[in-house]
Amino acid sequence: MTTIEVKGVHQRFDTFEALRGIDLTLAERRIGIVGSNGSGKSTFARLLNGLLVPTSGQVLVDGLDTARSGKAVRRKVGFVFQNPDNQIVFPVVEEDVAFGLKGLKLPAAQRGALVEEVLDRYGLGPFRQHPSHTLSGGQKQLLALAGVLITRPDCVVFDEPTTLLDLRNARHVTKVIEEMEETVIVVTHDLQLLKEFDRIIVFDEGRVIADDEPGAALARYVERMQ
Amino acid sequence: MTPEAGTLSPLHRLPAWAKLMALAIAGTGLVLIGDWRLVAAALLATLGLYRLAGISQRKAFQQLRPLMWLLVLLFLVQGLWQSWELASLVVLRIATLVLAAALVTLTTRSEALIAAIEGALGPFRRFGVNPAKVGLAFSLALRFIPVIGQQAQEIRDAQRARGLGTNPVALALPLILRTLKMAGDVADAIDARSPYSDPYGDDDDLPPRFVIEPGTINTRTSCKTAEAPQKT
Ligand SMILES: Nc1ncnc2c1ncn2[C@@H]1O[C@H](COP(=O)(O)OP(=O)(O)OP(=O)(O)O)[C@@H](O)[C@H]1O
Ligand SMILES: [Mg+2]
């Protein structure tokens, strides 16, 4: 179980302050993040695995500072982006999944077994040798997830994983996220996705305005949006 | 890019480095040959290799289609200003090179191709060439050419829906903007997805946190209901 501590974080882009003082300890298994457009959710998410380093303050993943231990942090915290097209980097499905293993210098047979295992887990086994751009939107999102999980992170951050999907694929991905054993942190506008979560954090204009169990937090969010 | 299953011709089975080497030699040879009839023979020979690989002639011509107008233009310009023989030589040479290069990518798994390129560039490391970077750039090109093509189609459709004609400049601008935005996202994704290596190859000896064994990724989830892939 990973613990992420966010301490006094401010994030500035030029003169604009996207995050204005965030202090949180994230240790629950399922954490949802909601907020209006531009409230700083994606910026916050990108801080959690060191894709972005805070302008001031600190982010610690199991005590590791993201500003200094980027690689080590990324081994613990995986990231699934909104648009799977932009995170599939190899032309063939199985090659793409194997990308995360690069650097481990595993024997080919072992690498193949790992790839097969993670593809089978998401029903992508039959598409192993397919060009990745011919998958459907839902399958691409699952491929993106498979490519992250093969490195076995303890925690996976999702930034709007269902936004670009139709209802059926969105439900499928929602189910997959619900069943994951890893800790998950999900940024979303899709409140359905968060019903069963342990904790919801509501962002507004770069600040946390609610941090509670889903019922109370979502009520506060809906009220704020009116 | 990926040979279809069950079509393993002798060309498919040849190692990637051998094909790349043959391509380099053929390319050099083509540039040295000055007789258009010999180049025409080379073109026919290349088409013969397509047959050997079990790839249809139609697919072979598809490889040339994006270049068609350029070739026609080149042929006319060279023919009118220089000579028709020179025009034939130049155009046949380009067509043969493109077909030969396409044949290599069509009969080689991109992974093998990239590994071969990285291997071949190894000796140039001391001159500041970074093989990992070149290999990654190559695979990204293979991966994103169809994506960019799809986006061009989307933009064209949107413009047509608004009654705008097909103006290449009107297409280029939004396409470039989208591609730049995409490039930033892709760079982030490469970073996020490379916990055990430096994708840009600047330091390649990071000790792994653990050795991953098959059978240990948790298998509680069973979502085996993926649909058929989209036709594109
Ligand atoms: N790289 C950047 N450079 C400049 N400004 C940025 C950058 N990234 C984000 N911003 C700004 O920071 C603010 C918060 O952006 P962020 O993407 O975190 O919002 P969000 O909550 O994820 O919104 P959405 O729901 O639309 O995804 C926005 O005003 C945005 O314009
Ligand atoms: Mg966002």
Question: Would you give an account of this structure?
Answer:
The complex is a heterodimer of chains A (226) and B (232). Chain A is α/β, with parallel strands linked by helices. Helix content of chain A is 32%, strand content 27%. Chain A is built from seven helices and ten strands. In chain A, the strands form two sheets. A six-stranded mixed sheet of chain A has the order 6-7-8-3-9-10, with helices on both faces. A four-stranded antiparallel sheet of chain A has the order 2-1-4-5, covered by helices on one side. Chain B has 232 residues and is mostly helical. Chain B is 66% helix and 0% strand. In chain B, helix 3 (36-52) packs parallel to helix 6 (84-107). The radius of gyration of chain B is 22 Å and the shape is globular. Classes of the chains: A alpha/beta (226), B mainly alpha (232). Chains A and B meet through helix 2, helix 4, helix 5 and helix 6 of A and helix 8 and helix 9 of B. Magnesium ion is lined by residues 41-42, 159 of chain A.
